[in-house]
Amino acid sequence: MPETIKNMSVYDREAFLKAANSGTTKRYNIRVMIVGKQSAGKTCLLRRLMNEEIDDVISTDGINIERRKCHIDIKTGVWHFYKYISEDFQSKTYENMIEKEFDSIGEYIDFWLDNIHCYCTDDKNTSMQCNDDLDLNPPVIIVGTGIDKIPLVCYVTTVEFEELRTDIVRNAKDLSNWEENLPIRWIVLEKEMYRKQTETAILFSEAEGETPRCENKKVILYTEAQSLANECTFPDVQKETSELDSFLKYEHEIGNIVFFKEVREYIVLDPEWLVDVFRCFVSHDYNGEALGMPEWAVLDETGKLEDNLIEKLFKKVPSLILTKHKQYLLELMEEFGIIVKPKNDDFRNDIYMPCMIKPRPFQEILRKVDVKSEYCKKSSWFCLVFNFLPPSYFNHILVSFVKNKQLLHEKNDSKLSIYRNVGIFQLNETGSEILVICLSKNLIAMQVIQLKSENVCYSYVKNRLINLVDLIKQRYRINVIYEIRFKCADGSLLDNEGIGYDEAIVKGEYRCTDHEEMHSSKVIYRSWLKEEEVEEERSAIIANTCPCTSAMIAIKFYVETVPENMVTRKKNELYIGNKYGIVVFDMSGSVKRRMTLSFTPCDKCYDVDSQRIYCIVREHSKLICIDKDGNDIFTFTNPNMTKVKDLTIDNEGNVVVLCTKG
Ligand SMILES: Nc1nc2c(ncn2[C@@H]2O[C@H](COP(=O)(O)OP(=O)(O)OP(=O)(O)O)[C@@H](O)[C@H]2O)c(=O)[nH]1
Ligand SMILES: [Mg+2]
C-alpha cells in the first residue's frame, strides 16, 4: 500500500484495497522540488535540467509550481524531453514572510533542510529526518549555483547536468514509493483527468467587444469527474462516491489536483493555476493599480479584504475573466486558511486576510489591551516551543481562532484586534476575560488577561490550542515537534526560558531567568492546568520512573481475576481484560467504563493511530479487531495459525501474532 494511502483514513484505505482487488499496476513518478534563496538560480537550474534555454529567465513571483513532464527510461536512466517533471518552489513572498537572518552558511542550509523535512510524509516517526541508514529522507541534493563566480572554478558543464540527472534517478529509486502499486482503474482515471486538463475550453470575456479565447481546462465540475470515473469502471459512481472521493483525496495528497470534500463542487486539475490565483492575493509584488486603491490601505491596516479589491485582484489572472469561479475560489481560500470570516456578529460577512496585514511591534499591539485597572490579572504565558515552525503554521491557528471566537475591538475604535501573527479575543460573554495569542519566532504563546482578579483555570483553552496544533500537523502532514513551557506573566517571551511542563509538575519552584529569582511552579501552571490534571500527570510520571507506581496498583487489582499479560495502557487509561470483556480504569484505579465482549481475549493490543483494539482468543485461534467501544470490526483466522499466544503491533501498524506454526 502506498505510504500516502497508509496515512489516510481507514475508509480511504479500505476503498483502496477494494479497488486494488480488481488489479494493480506499478507506477513510477519522480517529484523534484527546488528550494533556495531568492535569485540563487533555481529557475535556471530547472531549465537546464530540462534541457531548455535560459536566455529569457525572469525572477519568479511567489511560489511557483511547474508541472514539467519528461520520460525517463527506467532501465538506462536516460531522460527524454518532451514538454515538461519538477517543481520550482520558492518565493520572495515566502522569504518576506519568514523574515529570517542567517549568521552562517550552516544555519542557512539547516533552515532549508528543516523546511523540506517538516513536510516529509514518508516516515511514520514524525520527528525523524533520517531513515535507518541515516540517509536524509527525502534525499536532498545540494547544488552550488554561481560557482563560475569563484575565481579559477569553471562553468557547470553539460556533463555535470547529466550527472545531476543520474543522481536524481538513483535517489528516486531508493525511495519507498518507487514502484508503487496502484489500482489499474485509478491510474486510468488519473490519465483521463490529465487528458481533460489538456483539453481546451473557449472562454468568453464578460467585457463587451472582446473576442473569446482558448484556454486549457484548469477546473472541472465534480459531476464531470463522476462521469470520467464511470468510464474508467469505477463501480456505482452515481450512487456511491466513496472510492472516487478516496481517489481524489489521494491525487490531492500527492499534489496532482486540488480537491476538498467540504468544497466539492469543482476539482482543480492544474494546481499551478490555483497558485496563480493565490498569488494575486498573497504577494509582495502587486501592480500599481491595485496599490493605489484605498481598499489596499484598509487591508494593510486592518486585514479586511474589501469586495472591490477582490474583484480587482481576480482580474490579474486572465483565465478568471469569467467570474463564475469567484465563490468557489473564495471558499477554497477559506479552506486553505488564507482568508477568514470573523465570528463577531457585525463582521460575519466580511473577509479578512491576516497574513497580509502590515507587521507591527508586538509591544505596541499589547499596549492596546493593556488594562490599567488594579483588579486586572494576567495569567502566565502558555507556550508551545517548536523545533521548527513553517511560516504558514501559525496563520492556520490564528484563522481557526478567528472563526470560533469573537475578536476584541480596539479601544475607541471599531477595528477588530487582529494583527500580523497576533490575535486578541474576547474569551467569555461578559468580556471580563481577554485572550492574547501570538507567534514569536519558533514559539506559539497565549495569555489571558482578566478584568477581575480571580483564580480561573483556562485548561480548556490550553486543550483547544493543543488539539488544534495536532490537527494542523495531521491535516497538512507537517512533521514538527513541540515542547510545552510556561513563562511568567510579565517576562519576555523570547529571552525568558520559563519552565517546561514535566519540570513544573514535579518541582515546587524554579529559577526564573528573566527576573533572576525563584518562582513558584504552581503559580505559573495553575492558570492552565487543573489540579486533577496535575495529579494524573504526577502518577504518570512516577509510572515512568518507578516500578512501584499507581499503574502497578491497577495491575495488582486485575491480576486477581485475569492472566498477567492483558493490560494495555493508553494515554491515562488502563484497559484490563477479564472473563467478560474489558474494563477501562483511570490512573487512580476508578472504573471509567466496561465493554462486554462475546469472547475472552488472552492477549490484546491497543493501536493508538487507528483507535482499534486487537485481541487474540486462544481456544479458537482467532484474531479479533474491535473499536474502542468494543464493537466488532473484523475477525481473522488462518489454518496455519494455531495455539495463538501473544500479539503486538509494530511501528508500521502491522499486527504480529505469535502462534505455533507461524
Ligand atoms: N554567474 C551565474 N549566474 C547565474 C547562475 N545561475 C543563475 N544565474 C543568474 O542569476 C540570476 C537569477 O537566476 P534565476 O534562475 O532567476 O534565480 P531564481 O532563484 O529562480 O530567482 P527568483 O525566482 O527571483 O528567486 C539570473 O540573472 C541568472 O542568469 C550561475 O550558475 N552563475
Ligand atoms: Mg525563479
Automatic annotation (TrEMBL):
Q: Which GO terms describe its molecular function?
A: GTP binding; GTPase activity; metal ion binding
Residues binding GTP are 36-43
Q: Where on this chain does Mg(2+) bind?
A: 43, 60
**Could you tell me what this protein is called?**
COR domain-containing protein
Would I find Nucleotide-binding among this entry's keywords? yes
Q: Give the matching InterPro entries.
A: 6-blade_b-propeller_TolB-like (IPR011042), COR-A (IPR032171), P-loop_NTPase (IPR027417), Small_GTPase_ARF/SAR (IPR006689)
What is the organism field in this record? Mytilus edulis
Which keywords does the record carry? GTP-binding, Magnesium, Metal-binding, Nucleotide-binding, Repeat
Stretches assigned to the COR domain: 215-344
